[in-house]
Write a structure and sequence with these properties.
Chain lengths: 304, 483
């Protein structure tokens, strides 16, 4: 009996209801396989090839990966950029969203209005956000520098997007502004699940607001934090539109991230195999960082 | 009628053409602009003004006696009398291009084409130029309905050629007889024509002629004059060159001017560019270091605005349009943006040559024949027939004129009259100069070589250290080429 006939025999042995459930999953699985699984496997295959998109691909084994690891200083710089970018965004986006959520927890007209206001940037297109912030950051007439100069802080009026020292951080600030509102909503949903009697008991015991936050809110919000951190991390590693619309990765690749590098390698340099290898590296880095985060948060939460 | 033309031109002919030009221009200039713009009269008074690209067109230029006079436009001619457009078969095809700003004009042209060819339909598929550079090949190679499309001269045209997507159209009569033959070079491989470069662009700095006249400034014609000019203009509180350094695409246009007189001849220039493009030479070579040093010299002389590396192509044309900058160093394609920002700039823009030597320059300006129209070799024969007919329609003088006037772009089609667009008239004098086909596009490795190279020059133009920047970028380029 071959594997296929064995599988068929098993399928025949199932109940009618069970067969129906499996049949219902087939369309979704087919779409998933066609739109995600197949391209992902194809991408893996390309990563072992040298291909310009026109001529026949040439199998090069692990060359793309070894070259990335040993000969591509720019890619290593870009991975470093992305890690710094992600670290900043994860820390500030999580901190701000938790802070705002604690103030916007109750369902009053004011807090609901403020939640809508904070969420508003999320519904804007990323290119629009990029253009708005490009104007705000304009070194010669932008709002930011004009404000700094107006209060006498001329030395802090910088060439935000045009200087290799600041461009990455300027985009990170924009990313935090762009997505904090989204995380506020997730936090509000999570914090509203914390039983109110815990706070009532804490108040009876005379706990201050800080003690309540430290001993109730923070530990009880850890599962939500795990979601927010993981989501923000993935979002930061996938950041493309903002970078492309604000700096195109410049000046001198100072704000280049892995995804913009993949895009340029594939579509400007026409090195599809090498770009595929870069995307495999991206997947590995994201998996590794996410796993480390989950592990850290679970240990803190006491769920081993 | 007062005429100062060459003796070979009859007074009657000169008078007729000049009168037509005057009449057309008079309808173009609004009363508010009239005081600020040059007056086009029967007598030739504005150097460089040209009435078109036909054999009967005239250009106003200095004669041997130093006086302004009407003369024949000096252009390469087609090899016969222009032919009418081909007739298209019935059917529907797609026209892929990268100029959203031309959508309305193209739609007008398509409507006329469809009216002339009942049962034929053309749908425009438009991407932004950035997306088109990166994605057009993948999309068109997988879509046989994209029967007519455009490519950019250089790397993209080569990519499409290598992919077998370009049909040989050398034998078409409209190619031989309707197109200025010298403009066909970028669409030609091994003597065969695979595309008609539709636009004749001039990638030279635009200057505000009114501002120059008011301040008594003259256009610098040597490198030393250019640096002195920058100091003088900056002292007057005006940005000398509104260089959009934060937008790589348009920031790179100025590189054409730096390259054009950097070598003793064009063959040497081509081989030097090829050496860098293939990794055989470094950016640290004396030749390229000299170019980089000139970017630095311009920055040191105050040619560029403050914080130029954060100065993008949204701000630069706005400053130029608002009269805060004297020069917008991009090209003729920037004129429509400037006019959209400030309609009163119509008629005030002219082209200048950015000369980076103090000796007699080899070239006086840059041209680029691009927006190369091709037929998809993978389309069905019926769709190819429609595509050929559409290109032949675009290559007729009245349609090319409609496109040129509507988009403020010069075209490579014969017998086009630019009189109805004052900015095309004002910038047509560049056609009479010795021009080099934009050398920037000789870099075929756009992502691996040209982009990092231009990024380095932008950084240097913004004050970065020349030696370190060139050394670091050379390393990046070499590593990129080896991947």
């Amino acid at each position: 009996m071959g594997p296929l006939s064995g599988t068929l025999a098993k399928f025949r042995g199932r109940t009618k209801e069970s067969k129906l459930l499996i049949a219902m999953a087939v369309p979704a699985f087919a779409v998933y396989s066609f739109l995600y699984l197949y391209p992902a496997i194809q991408n893996l295959a390309y990563s072992f090839e040298r291909w310009d998109g026109v001529t026949k691909p040439e199998f090069v084994g692990l060359h793309n990966f070894t070259y990335l690891a040993t000969n591509d200083d720019l890619f290593r710089k870009i991975v470093g950029n992305n890690i710094r970018f992600t670290l900043l965004v994860v820390i500030f986006q999580t901190a701000f969203s938790l802070l705002f959520a604690t103030f916007l927890l109750k369902n009053t007209k004011t807090t609901i209005f403020l939640r809508v206001i904070y969420f508003f940037p999320t519904i804007l297109s990323s290119v629009s956000v990029g253009l708005i912030w490009t104007f705000l950051y304009n070194p010669n007439f932008g709002f930011l520098n004009a404000s700094l100069k107006a209060i006498g802080l001329d030395n802090f009026a910088l060439n935000w997007l045009g200087d290799t020292k600041y461009s990455l951080y300027a985009i990170a600030v924009t990313q935090v502004w762009f997505h904090t509102g989204q995380m506020v909503i997730i936090y509000v949903a999570g914090l509203q699940q914390i039983p109110a009697d815990l706070y009532e008991a804490a108040e009876v015991d005379g706990a201050t607001r800080w003690q309540q936050f430290k001993n109730i809110t923070w530990p009880m919000a850890l599962p939500t934090t795990a979601v927010v951190v993981a989501y923000t991390t993935i979002q930061s590693f996938r950041a493309f539109d903002l970078v492309y619309s604000m700096t195109q990765g410049g000046p001198l690749n100072s704000s280049d991230l892995i995804v913009t590098s993949i895009y340029n390698t594939a579509f400007s340099s026409f090195k599809y195999g090498y770009a595929s290898a870069q995307s495999i590296v991206l997947i590995v880095v994201v998996l590794l960082v996410t796993w480390l985060q989950r592990r850290t948060l679970r240990i803190d939460y006491g769920v081993k | 009628m007062k005429t100062k033309g060459r003796t070979s031109l009859s007074a009657l002919r000169i008078g007729a053409v000049a009168a037509i030009a005057m009449a057309l221009v008079a309808t173009t200039i609004t009363s508010t602009q009239a005081a600020a713009t040059p007056k086009f009269g029967v007598a030739c008074t504005t150097e460089g003004v040209s009435t078109g690209t036909s054999t009967t067109s005239l250009v106003c230029q200095k004669n041997s006696g130093g006086k302004l006079a009407w003369a024949n436009v000096r252009l390469g001619q087609a090899t016969g009398k222009p032919v009418a457009a081909l007739t298209a078969a019935a059917g529907t095809i797609e026209f892929h291009h990268f100029r959203p700003e031309d959508k309305a004009v193209f739609q007008t042209i398509i409507d006329r084409f469809e009216a002339a060819n009942p049962g034929t339909h053309i749908n425009q598929v438009i991407m932004s130029s950035g997306d088109y550079t990166n994605l057009a090949y993948a999309r068109i190679s997988a879509n046989a309905k994209a029967a007519v499309f455009v490519t950019v001269r250089g790397g993209q045209f080569t990519q499409f050629y290598n992919g077998g997507l370009l049909k040989d159209i050398s034998g078409e009569r409209f190619v031989k007889q309707n197109v200025i033959q010298s403009a066909l070079t970028p669409g030609t491989v091994d003597g065969k024509v695979y595309g008609v470069p539709y636009q004749s662009l001039f990638n030279d700095p635009l200057y505000n002629a009114e501002m120059f006249a008011k301040n008594g400034w003259t256009v610098p014609t040597t490198w030393t004059q250019t640096l002195a000019f920058c100091k003088k203009v900056k002292a007057a509180g005006i940005i000398p060159f509104a260089w959009p350094a934060a937008t790589r695409g348009n920031a790179g246009q100025i590189l054409n001017s730096f390259l054009m007189n950097s070598a003793p001849d064009v063959a040497t220039l081509t081989s030097r560019i090829a050496a860098i493009d293939t990794g055989k030479a470094d950016l640290t070579s004396d030749w390229f270091t000299d170019i980089a040093n000139k970017y630095k010299a311009m920055n040191d002389a105050g040619c560029f605005p403050a914080n130029v590396t954060g100065y993008n192509d949204t701000v630069a044309p706005a400053d130029f349009a608002a009269g805060k900058a004297a020069i917008y160093p991009t090209g003729t394609f920037g004129m429509s943006t400037v006019k959209n920002l400030n309609p009163s700039m119509a008629g005030k823009m002219k082209l200048m040559s950015l000369i980076t030597v103090d000796t007699k320059p080899l070239y006086e300006g840059i041209t680029n024949n691009t927006f190369i129209l091709s037929v998809n070799a993978k389309s069905s024969s019926r769709d190819q027939n429609i595509a050929r007919a559409f290109i032949s329609f675009l290559a007729t003088a009245p349609i090319a004129q409609l496109y040129a006037v509507g988009t403020s772009q010069h075209v490579s089609i014969i017998n086009v009259d630019y009189s109805a667009n004052i900015d095309l008239l004002n910038t047509s004098d560049i056609m009479g100069k010795k021009l080099l086909l934009a050398p920037r596009f000789l870099f075929n490795n756009v992502g691996t070589v040209r982009n990092p190279l231009e990024d380095a020059l932008i950084a240097i133009g913004g004050g970065a250290d020349v030696t370190k920047t060139l050394a670091d970028t050379s390393k990046t380029i070499k590593q990129g080429l080896g991947a």
